[in-house]
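Quick one, probably user error.
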């Protein structure tokens, strides 16, 4: 009996005083805003894809107007597995399917609206794309998420309170029938005009309250408690403020989101100045997602087959999204057949291979690691072994009063590396202010790089390979440091999987540009083959081009300014031609959808070839400058106009 008690006692004390139990009680106190369990899982996911495939694909548009006949939708070779397995080969861990885009066509047989897949000829109206993607994701071991556009250009009720109920019911259907979702993606685009049951009118909604987001997201929380909610402002994952997929160099996972006009922030209704950088010490933990498409547009366009991003471009985006503590959300665009184009498939596979090659082996494991301080001298709990064990949550920590410390890596023989990776244990918040990396060269320490905003992941990509036997990392924080990982990697020379296609554009040598009241060189900026010069005017809403001889063409390109200013980009256009520069006739008109968020080259394809010497690009609506209402806006900005010979 006595013996048993003694045994019990010793077991108890072993538990109490084991290093693990010690670590629990002795861990640094969390600093500032910290992630939820749901957000931790999202951080671990790092890479996922966003699939756009609706009747809009068949119309070769970016934003469907809401009037496409359901009969258009008939992808004869559709294969969700081909698409999802290509995503997996790229190293992506999840897929989000656009279950309904702005055109309003539901890709599942919803009870909430007639405009849905059951009206299409595909599988005789018995098909369900959401189900197909859910099952393919399951089969490939990938996470599954949904995007259901709040803006609906088809629904006759859009703009009234009745539509909100329809939208919430759509979410309920999606949340209840397709297993566990890892993300619910809510975009902030609300363009205004649309088909709306045949009304063909402009409907504006008050984004500060129309979607009643707090109650709408309460449905998400109730039915899909593990799904991270993405929107411009979170609450779990925020937009990065562009569709290039990248954040600025400094990008905190903490942010204080502010609304407009003294009202609370809502998607599409917020101060977006800090979306990219976040806020040091911000009130909320809302990391960013970098969304970008593998192609220029989110939907498939055959004329963009030559513009699939290269592996080198993808890797650079990866380093500035995942490598800045966010996630990479890469757009995939199935063709009208319902498959990914072979070029997209091979690019994804090559990208996945590269990631494996780079991050397969952490060179830091070969180094002897020493640090200037270990918390309470508890090497077992807070020591350097934690720095290379590939666990995000085991960590090296300093004493509470040690806010600056060094980590030194000593190699037996010189190591070659070009990437340094740092991670904090974010369960304890984003603690580190900055880090400096030094190498020991010519008998002295030399600074190689600096970084701020470490957080869940910070990739420092050097411009060239370095060779060093001693590396030192200096870390500065306002509180005790809790660093979980140090990685050193060597990037191979990236062989590009194919180069970008040639554009087949006419040379602009003898072109003359005119626009009322605009003079001089600035006009030439619109046709000088230089993407970084901009023609800007407030005195006219069009520009005329005189080619000096008739040109034969069936497509024209408009490149909005590439200087980061989206104001003045053309949203609605009219294209006119003339034989003599006096009498004009309209040859095309339409919208450049999504140009504000994604200011890429826009291609206008004409119904048939024309021969003409004069061309007018007329802006019927442009993106207003900050603080200007649409009606007061008269700014027009053009980086380049192209005329395609083929
Ligand atoms: C945006 C939309 O307007 C685009 O069409 C696309 O869906 C992108 C991912 O989000 O807000």
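Nope, works fine. Designed sequence:
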């Amino acid at each position: 009996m006595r013996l048993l008690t003694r045994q019990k006692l010793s077991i108890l004390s072993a538990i109490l005083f084991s290093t693990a139990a010690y670590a629990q009680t002795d861990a640094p106190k969390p600093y500032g805003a910290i992630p939820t369990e749901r957000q931790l899982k999202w951080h671990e996911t790092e890479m996922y894809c966003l699939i756009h495939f609706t009747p809009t694909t068949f119309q070769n548009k970016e934003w469907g107007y809401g009037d496409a006949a359901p009969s258009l939708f008939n992808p004869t070779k559709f294969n969700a597995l081909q698409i999802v397995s290509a995503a997996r080969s790229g190293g992506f861990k999840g897929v989000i399917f656009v279950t309904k885009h702005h055109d309003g066509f539901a890709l599942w047989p919803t009870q909430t609206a007639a405009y849905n897949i059951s009206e299409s000829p595909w599988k005789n109206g018995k098909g369900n794309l959401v189900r197909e993607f859910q099952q393919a994701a399951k089969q490939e071991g990938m996470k599954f998420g949904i995007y259901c556009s709040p803006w609906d250009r088809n629904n006759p009720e859009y703009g009234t309170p009745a539509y909100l109920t329809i939208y919430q019911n759509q979410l309920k259907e999606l949340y209840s029938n397709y297993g566990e979702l890892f993300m619910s993606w809510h975009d902030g685009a609300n363009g205004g005009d649309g088909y709306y049951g045949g009304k063909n009118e402009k409907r504006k909604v008050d984004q500060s309250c129309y979607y009643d987001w707090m109650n709408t997201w309460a449905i998400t929380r109730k039915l899909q408690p593990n799904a991270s909610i993405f929107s411009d402002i979170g609450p779990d994952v925020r937009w990065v403020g562009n569709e290039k997929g990248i954040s600025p160099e400094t990008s905190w996972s903490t942010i204080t989101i502010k609304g407009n006009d003294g009202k609370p922030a809502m998607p599409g209704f917020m101060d977006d100045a800090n979306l990219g950088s976040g806020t040091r010490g911000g009130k909320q933990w809302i990391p960013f997602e970098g969304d970008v498409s593998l192609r220029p547009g989110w939907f498939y366009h055959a004329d963009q087959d030559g513009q699939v991003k290269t592996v080198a471009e993808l890797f650079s985006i990866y380093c500035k999204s995942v490598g800045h503590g966010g996630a990479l959300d890469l757009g995939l665009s199935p063709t009208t057949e319902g498959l990914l184009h072979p070029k997209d498939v091979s690019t994804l596979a090559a990208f996945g291979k590269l990631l494996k090659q780079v991050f397969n082996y952490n060179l830091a494991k070969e180094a002897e690691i020493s640090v200037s301080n270990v918390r309470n001298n508890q090497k077992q709990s807070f020591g350097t072994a934690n720095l290379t064990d590939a666990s995000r949550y085991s960590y090296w920590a300093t004493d509470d009063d040690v806010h600056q410390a060094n980590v030194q890596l000593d190699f037996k023989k010189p190591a070659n590396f070009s990437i340094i990776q740092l991670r904090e244990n974010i369960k304890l918040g984003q603690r580190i202010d900055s880090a400096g990396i030094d190498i020991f060269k010519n008998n002295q320490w030399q600074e190689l790089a600096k970084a701020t905003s470490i957080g869940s992941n910070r990739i420092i990509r050097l411009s060239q390979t370095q060779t060093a036997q001693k590396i030192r990392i200096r870390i500065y924080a306002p509180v005790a440091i809790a660093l979980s990982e140090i990685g050193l990697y060597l990037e191979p020379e990236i062989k590009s999987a194919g180069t970008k296609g040639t554009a087949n554009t006419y040379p602009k040598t003898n072109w003359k540009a005119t626009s009322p009241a605009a003079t001089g060189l600035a006009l030439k900026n619109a046709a000088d083959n230089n993407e970084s010069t901009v023609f800007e005017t407030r005195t006219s809403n069009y520009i005329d081009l005189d080619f000096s001889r008739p040109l034969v063409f069936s497509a024209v390109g408009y490149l909005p300014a590439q200087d980061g200013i989206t104001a003045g980009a053309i949203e609605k256009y009219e294209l006119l031609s003339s034989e003599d520069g006096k009498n004009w006739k309209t040859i095309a008109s339409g919208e450049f959808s999504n140009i504000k968020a994604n200011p890429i080259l826009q291609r206008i394809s004409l119904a048939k070839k024309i021969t003409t010497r004069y061309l007018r690009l007329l802006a019927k609506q442009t993106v207003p400058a900050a603080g200007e209402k649409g009606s007061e806006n008269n700014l027009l900005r053009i980086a380049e106009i192209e005329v395609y010979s083929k």
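Residues 50, 62-63, 187, 189, 291, 298, 594, 597 surround beta-L-fucopyranose (CB under 6 Å).
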